[in-house]
Amino acid sequence: MTDTGTEPGLPRGARLGVDVGMARIGLAASDPDGLVATPVETVPRVLAGSGKQGSPSAEGTTADVKRIVAEVVERFAAVVYVGLPRHLSGKEGAATADARRFAARLTVALAAVGERAEVRLVDERMTTVSAHQALHAAGRKTKKHRSVIDQAAAVIILQSALDAERAKGERAGELVEVRTVHDTHE
User: Which CA distances in Å does 120 have to 15, 26, 79, 155, 185?
Assistant: First the structure.
């Protein structure tokens, strides 16, 4: 049997990394064996219910979530790793809550189209700082970082998750589960 680089117990399939920001979302992807993370694109963020960059669709799914769902389908992704921006102390704040809400909406949208890809939250402390440093070291001017910084952060999020998968032999992070919402007749 050939070694595909995939740990026993982990099904083969591309992984996506998502860096959720208030204005933009960085997207990165891996190969089907989960070896290397590469940048994909920067997706404009749609704040649900805000009307910014277009309002949520009739189904309640915003264009940014739809774009990520399309990437999951196109790449036959097994997992989507969403960065969870905790404070350096480990405490959670407003950005953490926003990432959790985004991951939950993504989970619901994936389930709605019959996709079984897991959505998992992974610690992303310092990824944007690391991305800025890497881009600067590569000779990119700070003004030009903005167009790719979110993708670079997504690559760091995803590569960290891939490395954790290989080290532990299991998926990294915290699984986001679909919660069935029932009409409560409040």
Answer: 11, 16, 7, 15, 31
**Angle at which helices 94-112 and 63-75 cross, to 10°:** 60
Domains and CATH numbers, the chain: 15-176 (3.30.420.140)
The pLDDT of residue 175 is 96
Three-state secondary structure of the chain: CCCCCCCCCCCCCCEEEEEECCCEEEEEEECCCCCCEEEEEEEECCCCCCCCCCCCCCCCCCHHHHHHHHHHHHHCCCEEEEEECCCCCCCCCHHHHHHHHHHHHHHHHHHHCCCCCEEEEEECCCHHHHHHHHHHHCCCCHHHHHHHHHHHHHHHHHHHHHHHHHHHCCCCCEEECCCCCCCCCC
pLDDT digits (tens, 9 = 90+) for 173-185: 999 997 644 433 3
Which residues face 80 on adjacent strands?
Answer: 16, 119
Residue appearing with tokens 């992807």: 29
- Spatial distance between the Cα atoms of 121 and 104, rounded to a whole number of angstroms: 10
- Segment 54-72, tens digit of pLDDT: 434 435 689 999 999 999 9
- Closest Cα to residue 178, out of 90, 134, 83, 114? 114
d(CA 77, CA 31): 9
